[in-house]
Amino acid sequence: MTTPTHDARVQFPAWPGESVTSIADMVARTSASRAVRTLLRRGIRRGALLYGSLPCRVQHFCEATSSAYGDEYDLLESHTLHRFATSGMRVAMEERVAENIVFGKVSRTMYPRLLPGLECGNRFGLQCPECAYEAARVVGRRISHVAHCIPYVTRCPWHGCKLICDCECSALEILLSQRRGKAYESNAIQYARSAWSINQRRSVGPIWPGIFAQLKEKGYVTSREKLRIQEFRAKFLSLFSAGFEDARLTQLATDWSAIERCIHGVGRPDRGPPASPLVLLEWAANDIEPIRPSSSRPRSNSAALVKRPELVLNRRQWLKNAETNASANRTELRRTALAEWLWLYKNDRQWLQENLRPACAPVNRRRLHELPQSVLSAISQNTVDMRDRAGGREPLSSAYQLRLAYGMNDYLFDRVTRALCPGINPAQRPAAREVFVSRRVQRATERSMIEGLQTDITSLSKKARLRVETVRKFSNFR
Ligand SMILES: [Zn+2]
């Protein structure tokens, strides 16, 4: 355990692998540190960083706790998902990202992101029942472990238990994590273990060279050090065809364009690929069968002899693909017949140039990508009243509270609102105060009648934990 070195306000040690948000939560609850409470509150309001494992820039947390839990880089390595999130980056890039998350001023971080909706929200509220029991037994408090904050993890990497949500801020994450059957369960456990293993191994360098070496050994890399995309794609998609418990991960694993973007991002010096597709790539490199010798392309000393039939074949395939996808633009055509395009580009470039669709500038380069249908369905079909709490005054329905409960950032919340309720101003969402108040007053009335208590407006307001004016304004009760 990381034991606090000084500062009398901080009393309790941190658990190994506990997230910084969880440590901040513990310090806020058990000490008089106003600074930590403010950081935590602001962090949750703005959307915690690194999937909920970090409430603010590391420097601010160290200042607020007088570095009682280690220096900035120790905290980043041991108590956040930094290692996981930078697992595809080169060392120089990773150092720049680390410096940015420790000392940065602007609100945006440098971690790679997936498309809106596919990207996970706040995962601080997720727990493994076994780990939670262990933490309660040993340290007597709730602990959020970074392993459970890893995007799309639905099961504990150590116990295999399905994660539960005991904190309102991860409502969307738990809505999208569904039990679906044995195949899904086994994939989910394997994903959790692979992702956690990457997080632990990260200190030895980026993981892509290892994946590439394995693919090369199995024959998926040409003599020119290029990946045999066609062959690898078929094996990759077939390996993950069963799907995962998190519908977003299923979408990611079956959407080859996202995986291809990740592969292209690996070599870039200015940005890194997102980590979750890398987990799948490493898994695939381990598990897929080697290419059979007969399926690899024959290499002849006489290139001219094999070139001619290949030339005819590739030209024919390219034209056939263009005919089938009559409405596709030149980039889409290239994606759908990448192998032919690559071959023709290398061997028959002039013919290819003559047979390309005319280039046209995109109308809007920043076009909005569609939100995943799984996310929209999970929200529109959700019937849980996320504002119903056991203690204290229940918060009223508001867009802000709903956003925090779903663990979304402002941008995604607005997109979801527009998609589900077109025409409604996002600031007005969910605009259901009347429904919410009358439902709570009705519940209070029923309870009062059962218990034989008075049902005047003052007693009912108290019972419903609402102000008298609120009940009068938003319900029919007078
Ligand atoms: Zn566990």
Structure report:
The chain is mainly α and 478 residues long. It folds into four domains: 20-175, no CATH class; 203-294, no CATH class; 297-354, no CATH class; 373-474, no CATH class. 53% of the residues lie in helices and 1% in strands. The protein contains 25 helices and two strands. The chain has helices at 20-30, 34-46, 58-64, 72-79, 82-85, 91-103, 129-138, 146-149, 171-175, 182-201, 208-217, 229-239, 247-254, 256-266, 275-287, 303-324, 330-336, 338-347, 349-354, 373-380, 399-406, 410-420, 433-451, 457-463, 468-474, and strands spanning 126-127, 164-165. The protein has a two-stranded antiparallel ribbon. The N and C termini lie far apart (57 Å). The structure holds zinc ion. Zinc ion binds next to helix 7.
Keywords:
4 domains; 478 residues; mainly alpha
Q: What is the tally of helical segments?
A: 25
Q: Care to count the β-strands?
A: 2
Largest sheet: 2 strands, antiparallel
Bound heterogens, unique: zinc ion
Structural class, by secondary structure, is mainly alpha
Q: Which word captures the global form?
A: globular
User: Strand order across the biggest sheet?
Assistant: 1-2
Task: Show unreliable segments.
Answer: 294-303
Radius of gyration: 27 Å
What is this structure's SSE topology?
Layout: H1 20-30, H2 34-46, H3 58-64, H4 72-79, H5 82-85, H6 91-103, E1 126-127, H7 129-138, H8 146-149, E2 164-165, H9 171-175, H10 182-201, H11 208-217, H12 229-239, H13 247-254, H14 256-266, H15 275-287, H16 303-324, H17 330-336, H18 338-347, H19 349-354, H20 373-380, H21 399-406, H22 410-420, H23 433-451, H24 457-463, H25 468-474
Antiparallel strand pairs: 1-2
Helix pairs in contact: 1-2, 3-4, 10-15, 11-15, 16-18
Bound molecules: zinc ion.
